[in-house]
Specification:
The protein has helices at about 5-10, 55-65, 80-85, and strands spanning about 15-20, 20-25, 30-35, 40-45, 45-55, 65-70, 95-100, 105, 110-125, 125-140, 145-150, 150-155. It has one domain: Roll (Pnp Oxidase, Chain A). It contains 3 helices and 12 strands; from the N terminus they run αβββββαβαββββββ.
């Protein structure tokens, strides 16, 4: 008997996570998605993983572009998270962006970021796990946007 996915969501909702926007570039086209299934994987070599639903537009975009940035959002950037969580094309026109190494768009006002080359894609149920080698990154000051029990939260 399979475990109830809604019960899994309820239980794992008790695991607080940070909120990120994963971004990528393919030619002149930019794409991004809000993600909290993001994990530091290895320090040597420096690797990070991002889990992406196979049905998401970002899935094919990442496979084709072979690069991505993970923008860690600050607590005042909930609106940015909501924008990139919506389905369909994303509007980057009003955002201040910087480039590091891969050309993936990086939010100039992100709390922190890592810039990555895609090194491997692994199957994980209805998602694929995109592993990226970190080639650049930086962190600023501030407090992270958090997600807990299905809601945006701030550190106490």
């Amino acid at each position: 008997m399979a475990f109830d996915p809604m019960e899994q969501r309820r239980i794992l909702g008790h695991f607080a996570t940070g909120v990120t926007v994963v971004t990528s570039r393919n030619g002149d086209e930019l794409y991004g998605m809000t993600a909290n299934a993001v994990t530091s994987l290895s320090l040597d070599p420096p690797l990070i993983l991002v889990s992406v639903d196979r049905k998401a537009h970002m899935h094919g975009f990442l496979k084709e572009s072979k690069r991505f940035a993970v923008n860690i959002l600050a607590e005042e950037q909930e609106d940015r998270s909501r924008r990139f969580a919506a389905r369909g094309p994303k509007d980057f026109s009003d955002l201040s962006l910087i480039d590091a190494v891969t050309g993936s768009p990086i939010f100039a006002d992100a709390l922190a970021y890592v810039d990555c080359w895609l090194t491997e894609v692994l199957s994980g149920g209805d998602h694929d796990i995109f592993i990226g080698e970190i080639v650049a990154g930086n962190a600023g000051n501030g407090r992270p946007l958090m997600f807990y029990q299905g809601k945006y939260q701030k550190l106490g």
